[in-house]
Amino acid sequence: MTRHEIAARHRSGHKLLIGYTPHKSRPGLLAAVQQRSPEIIVALGTNKGDKIIIETQPPHCCRIGEWCIVFTGRTEARAKREGELPVFTGITRATHRARRLDSRAMPASRSSPFRQTA
Fold first, then answer.
1. Residue 70, exposed/middle/buried by CB under 10 A (0-12, 13-18, 19+)?
2. Where are the beta strands (DSSP E) in 22-95?
3. First CA to last CA distance, the chain
């Protein structure tokens, strides 16, 4: 079964591997994010008030602060042949570099951390 690569991409260009899913669709992306959400929140250095914004139109993306979680367009087999992205376990050096590049935080809010946009 073909599995598709999902990565977190910072606006500065840093990328971290989130994982692989057999479903290259919005539900597949959401399932991968929900399955690993505690680790994603820690690794991407989000703040308490940050929202997870889920794009409803292609290309599908889950935005968290300055990060966007997307399909990379590569299959798992191709990613392993070409070289996998760094895995996002814990706080990574890429996260620290990204934080230094952009130290702005999103404003806090009392609403749900999940919001869909059209």
1. buried
2. 52-55, 62-64, 67-75
3. 31
Query: Taking the model in full, what pTM does it have?
Result: 0.69
What contacts 77, CB < 8 A, 6 or more positions away? 2
**Residue 83 and residue 92: Cα distance in Å, rounded?**
18
Q: What is the dihedral of CA 74, 76, 77, 80, to 10 degrees?
A: 90
Give me the amino acid identity at 96. H
pLDDT digits (tens, 9 = 90+) for 9-35: 998 888 889 889 998 888 888 888 888
Q: What is the pLDDT of residues 23-73, one digit of tens each?
A: 888 888 888 888 888 888 777 877 777 788 888 777 788 888 889 999 999
Strands 114-117 and 52-55, sheet pairing: parallel
